[in-house]
Amino acid sequence: MAKKAKTVFVCQECGYESTKWMGQCICGAWNSMIEEKVVEINEEDRRRRTSGQGPGAGARTDVEHAGRAGRPARLADIRSGEADRIDTGIGELNRVLGGGLVPGSLTLISGEPGIGKSTIIIQAASHIAASTGCVLYVSGEESEEQIKMRADRVCGDLSDQLFILAETNMENISAVCQSLNPVFLIIDSIQTMYTAELESAPGSVSQVRACGNELMRIGKSFGIPVFIVAHVTKSGDLAGPRIVEHMVDCVLSFTGDRTHEMRILRAQKNRFGTTSEIGAFEMAQEGLIGIENLSGILMEEMDRENEGAVATAVYEGTRPLVLEVQALTSPSGVGFARRTALGIDNARLNMILAVLEKKMGLRLAEQDVYVNIVGGLRPEGTYTDLAVAMAVISSSLGRPLDSKTLVLGEIGLTGDLRSVQNAEKIVREAERLGFSRVVLPIKNAERLRSAADGIRIVGIRNIREVKALFS
């Protein structure tokens, strides 16, 4: 008997289902509801699955039986999983993950096409297959020959424990996982997978959600770490329902310019490690190579003193990162002055410029202002406020700042500087890189003057005091 299909409307943002179309979803998104066909499972099919008959029923009943036989355990008696992490063989990837792969974890990795997602995954898969055990790479976009060509280029000798499966049907993938019993599973990508239980096309909200649930069942039931590759939209957000981000344990974002060699891997969510951790890579012919001294590479061009260029630092995850802020002010040729920011929030830039005009009397209303973070980075937090302000002042006055000076601090609307966290670690990194002076908020300076050796600490209380720092 043919299965009946019903029409539902699903929100692309949160995955909420409704039998009626709504202009605004309960999550607040407008015009996000799309129509989909969902197959209803009749009572006979449900009994067949429960009794262990039919495709994929065996794995499901194992979980159901385990659920009925489950018993609560004392938290004090449960062994920590820190020692069970799997080494990926890539130091920067291990750093972002929090020390390696956790068995049973789901990791979502996203990025623009050609950024290097498949490259870093095949490198990790090759190392795990050679050192730990069987690895299954499921590809719904590339053929087995294409993956083999990439693996030959970036991996060298391939282990016999690395298996490739060109498949998009989740029922078939589940069956292969039960027979192969891998220690690591890769899905490339979630938007190409589908389950026969739904009539909607692969990549739809219902299919992505159902396939994500099945992958979570596989990973949690058998203790297999799962890597899921996801597409991104033109704006850089994850394509598909946001419920997938809540479902997985770790969300990694791969960014960088395909015309340049540097790639940045950032952890936006991590249940087993530090969030906002970053890893740096260089794209080479033999694959992605980790960059340990990222600050040194970003500061290579800071040897000369240029107006509008200021060195600053942020604390990303577990390490300080020194980078360069550049600003350019130019008379506006039109009635409306332009404000362009690359690497920092444009609203934050407008606030800093308003403070400079109000508290310092700097005339910027008829000036175009351009601000850029060198290297294509997008640092989080307010560490770079003072550096952005001083770069704008330097360009406006035509006076360069000493290239051996590092600047950091948050600017308030009153013009006062607020202290930042982990300043002592940033000062030690600045000293290691050869800086002779660090300019930072007065509260940080008072705590660091007694502990800093070999580097001059300058405390700033208000934005008005920065003019004296220019040569």
What is the annotated CATH architecture of the largest domain? 3-Layer(aba) Sandwich
| Strand line-up of the largest beta sheet | 6-5-7-8-4-9-10-11-12
Question: How many β-strand runs?
Answer: 21
How much helix, percentage-wise, in residues? 25-40%
Q: Estimate what percentage of residues fall within beta strands.
A: 15-25%
Unreliable stretches (pLDDT < 50, length at least 5) are: 48-69
The shape, in one word, is globular
CATH superfamily caption of the largest domain: P-loop containing nucleotide triphosphate hydrolases
Measured between the Cα atoms of the first and last residue, the distance is 85 Å
Helix/strand structural class: alpha/beta
Q: Give the overall pLDDT as a whole number.
A: 84
The number of domains is 3
For this structure, the CATH topology of the largest domain is Rossmann fold
Query: How large is the count of helical segments?
Result: 13
Major sheet attributes: 9 strands, mixed
Q: CATH class of the largest domain, please?
A: Alpha Beta
Radius of gyration: 26 Å
How would you describe the overall organization of this protein?
The protein contains 13 helices and 21 strands. It has 471 residues and is an alpha/beta fold. The chain has three domains: 57 residues, no CATH class; 208 residues, P-loop containing nucleotide triphosphate hydrolases (Rossmann fold, 3-Layer(aba) Sandwich); 174 residues, 2-Layer Sandwich (Ribosomal Protein S5, domain 2), CATH 3.30.230. A nine-stranded mixed beta sheet has the order 6-5-7-8-4-9-10-11-12, sandwiched between helices. A four-stranded mixed beta sheet has the order 13-14-16-15. α10 links the parallel β15 and β16. α4 crosses α5. The longest helix is centred in the middle third of the chain and has 18 residues. About 5% of the residues have low confidence.
